[in-house]
Amino acid sequence: xxxxxxxxxxxxxxxxxxxxxxxxxxxxxxxxxxxxxxxxxxxxxxxxxxxxxxxxxxxxxxxxxxxxxxxxxxxxxxxxxxxxxxxxxxxxxxxxxxxxxxxxxxxxxxxxxxxxxxxxxxxxxxxxxxxxxxxxxxxxxxxxxxxxxxxxxxxxxxxxxxxxxxxxxxxxxxxxxxxxxxxxxxxxxxxxxxxxxxxxxxxxxxxxxxxxxxxxxxxxxxxxxxxxxxxxxxxxxxxxxxxxxxxxxxxxxxxxxxxxxxxxxxxxxxxxxxxxxxxxxxxxxxxxxxxxxxxxxxxxxxxxxxxxxxxxxxxxxxxxxxxxxxxxxxxxxxxxxxxxxxxxxxxxxxxxxxxxxxxxxxxxxxxxxxxxxxxxxxxxxxxxxxxxx
Length: 389
What we know:
With about 400 residues, the chain is α/β, with parallel strands linked by helices. The protein has helices at about 5-20, 35-40, 65-90, 105-115, 130-140, 145-160, 170-175, 235-245, 280-285, 300-305, 320-330, 345-355, 355-370, 375-385, and strands at about 30, 45-50, 95-100, 115-120, 180, 200, 220-225, 250-255, 275, 290-295, 310-315, 335.
């Protein structure tokens, strides 16, 4: 297994890896040191490599603000990582390569070794027409710039050096085989996804007791969890609006996860029914919550669906806007732009959502459908099916 040091890319794979190890497979997991301890807990052998990407603790601003700012670091990192990984696996080549969608070296290594590769996708995948409808509009302007042309030339040259003739767009977006670790309900244009390549196994969740315990306070009529995930958490103004929205709402209890970069003192005095944490065991809280105010990351979105929790989606970056659109279209969430997320708007939206029987009914339908997708065990079964005879 190959991934980068980002919680949103590592976490979805962990239970699958744990299951493969439990079935008796020898699994190595190539990961930078920042997340090595988390990976080691699965029982996999950690294969360390050094990355040039921003670490999980770095602020999101370190990724830059443009499309090329976002993608160039992945290519640069892949090019410098490949020699490290070739050396690490010299004489110990695997029978099968698993990889996160961001791990370009993994597919190159699988090609060099002549072994099957299976992508584990933690978010949406390509559909028929994806290139024309999504990629081309996104890249139309950057491809006209000298910098954009240089990026593609460098990518193409690196692939060709390693015996791969695919165009970079196809290489990154079109794996030969992929297990999709989100529910089909979150996939745009799901009816146009090639099911001979992509299999939706849904959320691969396991025993989370090691993450910690949380209990709903006695007397709390409604519980709301607010979390912007692990990366885009530097939003003290937003958190203050959440305190205003729910802090004096009779019968409500607010669990406010603010991350590591915000000092609780920045929120001022908070009422007794507001619980401020740098981190919470999210799934445990959601199983007991009545509302989830989320950035609509892939992990949070599917945990909200899995626990049938109504959501207010306040997307911050990248795929979160698309996820928020999907959640709203499914009838289980309301999307509120960050700049419009005032106390008044959050409160009004919350009160409308939690008492809406149609929202509750739709969530139960989706929850039941997700339970049929198979999760961890089905993912492991399908991976074993790809192993050479």
